[in-house]
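Reply to thread "Modeling small-molecule complexes from scratch"

Following up on the discussion above, here's a worked example others can learn from. I took a protein sequence and the SMILES for zinc ion and predicted the complex. Inputs first:
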Amino acid sequence: MCDDHPADTSRRAAIGFLGASLATALAACSTPGTTSAKDPASGAVRAESSAGPDGPATSHAASPATSTKGPRGSFVPDYSLPPIQDGLAPVITRIPTKQPIVFLTIDDGAVKSPDSVRLLAENDFPASLFLTSNTVRDNPAFFKAFMEQGSRIENHTVSHNVNMTTQWGYQRQLDDIIGMQDFAMQQYGRKPALFRPPGGAYSTTMRQAAAAAGLKAIITWEAKANAGRMDYQYGNTLRPGDIVLMHFRPEFAADFAAFRAAQDAAGLQVVLLEDFLGVA
Ligand SMILES: [Zn+2]
């Protein structure tokens, strides 16, 4: 449902590099021809407690620097989420970080298999779950198990109309976004902070509507696990700061295995996007 890449692929320049105390080169993580190529991926993960205020906070600060399975992850915040500007929510496609971290996002919520809960739990991967209320309304409680593992429920509209940017005006888009805000608050006790457009396409009107609904950012992607394999829009490996798209589909286990292998091969630790952005 979300296979299409956003129409607007304008890349954000690196914003807010602060932490420069990064040393260890991780050549395996850099991909020629990408924005990260000029800055070889580098840096050891610091055993430093930072965000993650309300997750199951056990061992947040205890993961070894080389671990790719650290609960909630450990990192030095080196990026600041751009603010709402002129009423427009920022669009984040990838995080410009030098740290060996990657973000997992899982969309829609159609297939509610206990295997998906088990796989994330076994690997201790937190994820941002962009749910569509019409898709999860039959069993919203299923997703609470992910929350208990530290994942977050985010906004993927009520209707999942992939043509909403062209078919609908501002008010209808706003209503569809707010409907999911309210559903999430009612079911999960937290208003989503992040928005993913159905199909990935966004517009200025959508950015206005997302901001008006209280969302902090629109999150797209440049890598996805799909049909049991990884697809990259740039290069052929995961890069630090990549935001990876998956779906709750029948092939979840195969997609997850593809992501797990890519994440491991790239030496990247899975951390929660909301933790990193400070919007958990
Ligand atoms: Zn979707």
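What I'd highlight from this example: The chain has eight helices and ten strands. The first strand starts at residue 91 and ends at 92. Questions welcome below.
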